[in-house]
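Running co-folding for zinc ion.
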Amino acid sequence: MKITVFSEYGKAFREWKDVLSVHPHGLHETLKDVFSAVGEVTTVYQDDGDHCVRFTDDILNNTDVLVWWGHSMHNDVPDELAEKIAERVQRGMGVIFLHSAHMSKPFRRLMGTSCTLKWREVNERERLWVIDPVHPITRGVGEYVDIAHEEMYGEVFDIPTPDETVFIGWYQGGEVFRSGVTYRRGRGKVFYFQPGHETNESYHNEKIRLILQNAAKWAAPAEKILEKLDCPCVPALEKIAEEKE
Ligand code: ZN
C-alpha cells in the first residue's frame, strides 16, 4: 500500500517549543512513523505561504491512501489540487482527514457542507468512545480510548450524515463530537478523525496509532484505481423488439 502523508511544516512547526516537544521533526515525520507499520510512506509538507508545489501529479498518481493534516494554510492549497484529490477519491483512492483538516479544501469539496464546528484549546481530557465495535477501524481498540489532553471539537459539526459513525468523543468541559466518521465518495473511502492537535501527544498514544493504521488498511482501494471517470453510451445487452403499431 502506498501512503502519502501531507502536513503543514511552517515556522510554527520548526520553531515553537510546544510543537517541537511533541513533533521534533515535524508532524509529517510523526505520522510517517505511524503509517510505516502498514505501508510505504511518502511525506509531502507545506511551508509558510507555499502553494503545495511539492505535491506533484506524480505523487498523487502513486497514492493508494492519502493522509491530510492542515490547519493554518488551507487557503494556500490551490483549488485545482483539491479538485484533483476529490476526483482521485471518486476513482478509488482512500483518504484520511485528520483533526483541523475538517476545514481543508479537499475535505469540504468532498463533503459539500461548511464543515464548521465549535472548538476550545485548554488541554482538556477526551474520552473517545467506540460506537461501532465490529468496524475494521476499531479492531483491537477496546471500549474507549482516554486521551490526556486534546483540543475540544464540539457539535454541531456541519457534515453530511455519515455513512458510519465509528467514534464519539466526550470532553471534560461537557461537549460531545462525532470524532470518527466514514463516507464513500464514488469508489473511494473517506475517514475523518478528530484527535491530533499539534501541541498534544495523541499521535504517540498506542491506541490512536492502532486506529490510524486500521484506517489506512480499511481505506486502501480493493481494486486498481480507475484511469478516469466517464459516462459511456452502451449497446443494449438484449434484443429490443420494435414497437408494434
Ligand atoms: Zn488543533
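Result summary
The chain has a mean pLDDT of 97.
The two ends are 59 Å apart (CA to CA).
Job closed.
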